[in-house]
């Protein structure tokens, strides 16, 4: 944590003579108490900071701030016979001076005094590098040793803002970047929050870095990086008692995928239900499940992959009897996709045809669309799909209000017509 002084208390020299005589004459107690709290730029208390009443030659009294940064300094005013000020810390050439207002009062309270002690170590950036269910790793930096060698550094943690009086892991000495691994059986970052920060100690005191928070959010973030990334691409084949699903391990995560495959159940499945294995590693693969009796039962299937950190799943897909007929539809491979071709829906105007395709729900799918002219020409090459005496609308715009249609004239070709013309519609659905 970079500390900076927010306020320098200005020097107001208080010159007087015959101090005791004046105090006695006025009937004022010659002993005055000065108190306050020394803090850093973030409002954290600074312990072990020297507080002195001095005139640069004589130190009239001194104390150090306690654990909470507090000081209580008593001064016998009868013994002071010169200009004087409060010296906060012991930094040669950089005295932090405060004026002694309240001359002759019983108590004067400075309140909070923001201060930077350049003699204590300075902490650089702290970064959370890893979180598991009951451990975490921080990368920290002692950017400057301050006024003397750093004799201890590490990370402290607690359920609130931690100090070295709480839990600590020591991670060496000196300046520079270091990493600390903290593990505790009481940690369960699914349910608790722990606060941690770097610390460093030299002979002038301890200092702390920025506060970091470790909880379920960070756990999920790091587990997502460690676990495989899996995709259920979709069904590619189906019969009355089997289905084939195409899957992909996009990334293995932070460890090798030792097992991948597909799992299925009548609910959202996990590997504790039914599964088919397909080796390990990453990349595209297909799994076939047999011996099913769909009837009125709907199954759910999804890809899975396992590495040493756990298992990951793709999105589930529905498998039921309504999909069997879908895989009996004519298909074509075009542009890297497999197209399933819906039966001819009859003749209608272009705008009606577009709405019919976009709103179509059939065979358990709702993402049908009107093919463009290139797709329709590719469909025309498939035997017994398009009728040579019928014209078919496409989604390709020939310049509003004209759209392309496909027709047969000694071979399949395209032309354009106004959208009020009535031609036939053949919706398609595209699988990867």
Short description:
The chain has 432 residues and is mainly β. Helix content is 9%, strand content 44%.
**CATH class category name of the largest domain:** Alpha Beta
- Structural category: mainly beta
By oligomeric state, this entry counts as single chain
Inertia-based shape = elongated
Largest sheet: 5 strands, antiparallel
Number of domains: 4
Instruction: Look at the structure and name the CATH superfamily of the largest domain.
Output: Mannose-Binding Protein A, subunit A
The share of residues in extended strands comes to 35-45%
What percent of the residues sit in helical stretches (DSSP H or I)?
under 10%
Structure summary, number of beta strands: 32
Give me the secondary-structure topology.
Layout: H1 19-26, E1 31-39, E2 50-54, E3 59-64, E4 70-76, E5 85-88, E6 96-98, E7 107-114, E8 122-123, E9 127-132, E10 135-144, E11 152-158, E12 167-170, E13 176-183, E14 194-202, E15 205-208, E16 212-214, H2 216-226, E17 229-238, E18 243-251, E19 259-265, E20 274-277, E21 283-289, E22 299-307, E23 310-313, E24 317-319, H3 322-326, E25 331-334, E26 337-341, E27 347-349, H4 350-358, H5 373-380, E28 392-399, E29 402-408, E30 412-418, E31 422-424, E32 428-431
Parallel strand pairs: 1-7
Antiparallel strand pairs: 1-4, 2-3, 2-5, 5-6, 8-10, 9-10, 10-13, 11-12, 11-14, 14-15, 14-16, 17-18, 18-21, 19-20, 19-22, 22-23, 22-24, 25-26, 26-32, 27-31, 28-29, 29-30
